[in-house]
Amino acid sequence: MDELRSVMEVMFFGAVAVTKAVVPHLREQGSGAIVQISSMGGQLLMPGFGAYCAAKFALEGMSEALAAEVEPFGVRVLIVEPGAFGTEFGGARMHRSREIEAYRDLPTRAAVDTMDGTQPGDPANAAQAIVRVLDAEKPPLRLALGADAVEALRGKRAELRADLDAWEEVSRATAL
After folding, report:
1. Catalytic, out of 38, 39, 97, 103
2. Is 38 one of the annotated active-site residues of the chain?
3. Of 28, 65, 105, 133, which sits 20 to 30 A from 21 (CA to CA)?
4. Cβ atoms of 10 and 54 closer than 8 Å
5. Partners of 36 in the β-ladder
6. Which of 160, 132, 162, 130 is nearest to 143 (CA)?
7. Which residues pair with 121 in a beta bridge?
8. What is the pLDDT of residue 48?
9. Using 50, 70 and 90 to split pLDDT, how confident is the model at 116?
């Protein structure tokens, strides 16, 4: 629980604290943008990364609500959902939680442990993409970055849609 709280403190509550500090100023000036750096893990789960994904899911939920709250004041929110970028994610500086023997062989953990230096995304290109989207007349709420993120998120959306369609009758049968 301490490790989960630590991850949430940094990845969720840290972002919330910064956001809380800046929102009154943006609201007062009637313009601006808040860019939340999430992850494709903010929309889909990777086995072995429950705490990371939970923090990103929480950040996305808070950010989506915030977007609706600040929009009348001329403030925009952009949730950035990158895939694998050359940022040392997976490298020696990455914090790793206690390893549980039963989950030691999860393929996602092994993939991340060996990915540093091979990520396809360029952080400089990501920054340019974010600026380009912020300059758009009607920017999206969410921006997937990287072909891996686009494909993974597209697949997740299709999976969600298939489940909704397959179980629609059961879902609708709950009415009074």
Report:
1. 38
2. yes
3. 133
4. no
5. 79
6. 130
7. 85
8. 77
9. low
59: amino acid identity, one letter: L
pLDDT at residue 29 tops 90? yes
Q: Which pTM value belongs to this model?
A: 0.84
The dihedrals phi and psi of 12, each to the nearest 5 degrees, come to -110, -65
- The token duo for 172 is 């609708």
End-to-end CA distance of the chain: 40
Distance CA 22, CA 34 (A): 9
Distance CA 40, CA 102 (A): 26
The structural domain count of the chain equals: 1
State the catalytic residue, choosing from 6, 20, 39, 52: 52
Task: Indicate which CATH number applies to the domain containing 165.
Answer: 3.40.50.720
Supply the range of the domain harboring residue 28: 2-172
Q: How far apart are CA 39 and CA 48, in angstroms?
A: 15
Residue 63 annotated to the active site: no
Q: What percent of the chain has pLDDT over 70?
A: 84
